[in-house]
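Lab meeting notes turned into a lecture example. A postdoc, R.K., suggested we walk through two folding results consecutively so the class can see how the record format repeats. The first protein's sequence and structure tokens come next.
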Amino acid sequence: MEAWFIEAEDTVEWVQAGAKLIDVRSAGEFAAGAIPGAIHVPLALVPTQILDHVGPDDTVICYCLSGALADRAAAWLRENGVEAAYNGGGVYSLLEVWAALET
């Protein structure tokens, strides 16, 4: 069985290789700070909007505050034809990794 979680340290490489980063937090959380280049689709809107941004052949990394909502979004994507959908975990771990790139 494949692991559907990607470590924060690996997200940069995956995104540079073409993976799409999806932030499934609320609008307020997204506005307070997001990963550069992330696409914002709140979890409640995943079923109606996310397929406007990703296709079945895309690699997708979802993230939220803790990873719980991201796991639900990634599972929904896999159930709906996006086979390479992963849980990227919580935003703070990701922000730490991405901030290190700028130093």
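The second example is placed directly after the first for contrast:
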Amino acid sequence: MNTTMISQNSFQAGWVGRPQAVDSCASFALVKAFGDRIYSIAKRITQNDDAAEDVLIETFLEVCSDLDGCQEDGEVWLRLVTIAVREAFSKLHNRGEGCPLLDRVADSYEDLVVREFSVWGDNYHQRYSRERTTCVLEHGLRSLDPMYRTVFVLRDIEGISVEHIAKIVNRSDAAVEVCLLSARLQLREMLTRQMRQQ
């Protein structure tokens, strides 16, 4: 998805009736700098293009209405991600998927069970192309519980710290680590099955 089109079309339409005090140049610069990544996060959480576009627009409308609230790029980025995750969960809730795991995640590793495991040898890249692995990983992400999927995307794809993710999803660091480990194990198990079928 090219967020340039959003910044020129639907995003601009979203500003109709908004206060003129908003600095549109700064807003569009923000969309250009972070739009693709926010859209990617929203798409991976919601698994829906239209919902991801809505999340993108609502996220930037909220942040850009108060650009003075953040002084540094790091603060802006984390605020964008926090809003995007909240909006994405709202979309999931509206689709009847509830607010998964926010209140159910355990704070321990005791319930995690690895059902299938194999050692991946050095010839992994010869056995599986990068494109195929990406395709299988994206399919695996769709099968994860939305909270696991969110934590995995934020930590392993976007590189956000566990501490910041805990604040974003309003859980303890330990709960985030459990989600992350569970997501990694589930994805690894799925990839292992796919590789054996090859």
